[in-house]
Amino acid sequence: MALLSVAGLLVLAACSDAPEGEDKLLARVHQKELRLSELAGMFPDNATAEDSSLVIQAFVTRWCKETALQWEAERNLPADLNIDRLVRDYRASLVSTHYEEVLVAMRLDSTISPEQLTAYYEENKSQYLLERPIVRCFLIRVPHPVQDAEELQSLWNNGEISDTMALKNYCERFAEVSLLQPASWYSLDDIASQLPKGVLTAGNINSKREFSLQEGSFRYYFRLLEVKPRLEIAPLSYVEDQARNVILHNRKREVLEQAREEIFDRELRRNNIETFTNE
């Protein structure tokens, strides 16, 4: 492999009016060559000579390694490997995939109404069995010693809506973790990971419906609202994102199937499709 001096290359790279004959050879691996023109556009306007030198050296080194590997790979191709067919099939797949993406972007209705979501869930909820328990709960984790501890305890003990808002305001100021949405479902594992190890498990969740404890530099407050065990059907709110993705996937598949049929029927009518299997 022979390389031109970096200084000379930088002069050529900066000269946009250089004649075609000045497209200098940068490297050669067997019969494959790399020329200066292939680096066009790689040099920022404000690049220094040193920056451009590093770009050229790095590109040439990478090109030589990749080209040498390609040469070795081609030399060791199995005799029965039809590389041209593989390339042809891969190109066809890329072209088809790109056009399918265009079709989906144009035709797919991505709006899912609450009624459609509920209808899908009711028809398919047996597919959404819980793999792990989930819970609705309140959870607070605050640094110890607790700021305004009496205020927090009073707010925690009172279930009035006004105090719930005040509790949220307190947590915004002082808590490191606060889960105070009564309608939200959480994986029991996720909740347990916010508490000291072993405090809350699938085996003891029903006996620890409410507690407050201090360990290390934190104090924890937990209140269980509802638990759903493993293998029970998950509530819609817990699997809503999954359900939406499935609905959209099914719509996408329908869009593509319809497009394939339309294209096939059109080309059939135009006599652009012929089959000869019965001859």
From TrEMBL:
Keywords, A to Z? Isomerase
The record's GO molecular-function terms, alphabetically, read: isomerase activity
Record protein name field: Peptidyl-prolyl cis-trans isomerase
Q: Which species is this UniProt entry from?
A: Neolewinella lacunae
Q: List the top taxonomic levels of the source.
A: Bacteria, Pseudomonadati, Bacteroidota, Saprospiria, Saprospirales
